[in-house]
Design a protein that fits this description.
Order of helices and strands: EEEHEEEEEHHHHEHHEEHHEHEEE
Distance between the termini: 30 Å
CATH superfamily of the largest domain: P-loop containing nucleotide triphosphate hydrolases
Radius of gyration: 22 Å
CATH architecture of the largest domain: 3-Layer(aba) Sandwich
Helix content: 40-55%
Oligomer: single chain
Number of domains: 2
Structural class: alpha/beta
Length: 360
């Protein structure tokens, strides 16, 4: 079994120096708006993915007027107490230490303490852009499969180099064919892994949505790529890229491949982004997050930490009760402005009151 024990924050967002201890079950972090509740969730998410879910600018995570932040997480796995530390100085890269040993890359953090984040922004996976859905699928795959991360990084570099060549040279170039072949090879791994994950998530979401909707709603997830022609993925993708070479030269941009693919979530065969009510979109977002939790546990043997940031007010009583049933035997960190809003009938809850970046 795995569980987080203690978080130490120094110069992180609005925290000067603070320690937060977590319950083995549910830790409810409550307080008024803009006191620093979400900053705790952000730090925990950083320990799972190496990135913030709120900003791409790491400087924003450093407390105003300071030059660095230092955050440390203690966690237990198989009765062995371990720790992860992230130190960041402005103008430098994030430094990662696992059990006091410095790691070469921040991506070495992936899969150590997996987590699943459910926040109001999580609805963007249902009603947002294709890029937001791809990002969610990629984060899950990176947490369960280091090979996927390697291929995704490789693919992104290939696309970057190919784009630079397309912008520079508006004529066919033999080097372009080399980049296209590399793109097809790396892209094949990404498409096949995504399809496999989506197939598994769809089965889980069907079961969960049946439970939430009392059998009235059915889910399908379609991975929409522009090369579904019966061939294997590599040949299909290579043909697509080759056939559209002139179009890409004309636009000066890499227009096709997994970086442009769409993931469509259908509820009762209708596109949930366009035709679902807010309540249905919330149910789908909840079902997706639960399915992701189950998937990570299945593939890694680790029960991910569930991070619930200000979502209780977003869910009606029926969906809240469904969530309570799910988390009563798992570890969850929950934020809320209302201490009484979270009232599980059983389960071990610890209450943490935050006021202006301080545990009261």
């Amino acid at each position: 079994m795995m569980g987080i024990k203690k978080l130490r924050l120094k110069n992180f967002r609005n925290y000067i120096e603070e320690e937060i201890n977590f319950s083995d079950n549910v830790s409810l972090i409550y307080g008024e708006n803009a006191q620093g509740k979400t900053n705790i969730i952000e730090a925990l998410y950083l320990f799972s993915t190496g990135k913030s879910h709120r900003t791409n600018n790491t400087n924003e995570l450093v407390r105003h007027g300071e030059a660095f932040f230092d955050i440390k997480l203690e966690f237990e796995e198989n009765n062995y107490l371990q720790n992860i530390e992230i130190i960041y100085e402005k103008g430098d890269k994030k430094k990662l230490f696992i059990n006091e040993v410095k790691k070469e890359k921040i991506s070495d953090i992936l899969g150590v303490v997996p987590s699943v984040l459910f926040s109001p922004e999580s609805l963007s996976c249902i009603k947002g852009s294709p890029g937001e859905r791809r990002k969610i699928i990629d984060i899950v795959l990176c947490q369960i499969n280091k090979r996927y991360l390697f291929n995704l990084q490789k693919y992104n570099k290939i696309v970057k180099n190919k784009n630079a060549l397309l912008k520079k040279d508006k004529q066919p170039n033999p080097q372009l064919d080399i980049w296209t072949e590399s793109q097809a090879k790396a892209g094949t791994v990404i498409i096949d892994e995504r399809k496999s994950l989506i197939e598994s998530l769809e089965k889980k979401m069907k079961r969960i949505m049946h439970g939430i909707s009392e059998g009235k709603e059915d889910v399908r997830i379609k991975y929409k790529t522009l090369h579904e022609d019966g061939k294997n993925t590599y040949n299909s993708l290579l043909d697509l890229l080759t056939e559209n070479k002139n179009r890409e030269i004309e636009h000066g941009l890499c227009l096709y491949g997994p970086h442009r693919d769409e993931i469509e979530i259908l509820l009762n065969d209708r596109n949930s982004r366009l035709y679902c009510s807010q309540g249905q979109q919330r149910s789908l977002a909840l079902a997706l997050n639960i399915a992701i939790m189950e998937e990570i546990e299945e593939k890694t043997g680790k029960v991910p930490i569930l991070l619930l940031d200000d979502v209780m007010s977003e869910l009606d009583e029926k969906r809240r009760n469904f969530l309570y049933e799910l988390i009563k035997n798992k570890q969850a960190v929950v934020t809320s402005t209302d201490k009484t809003q979270f009232n599980m009938s059983d389960g071990n809850i610890s209450y943490i009151n935050i006021k202006n970046g301080t545990v009261v």
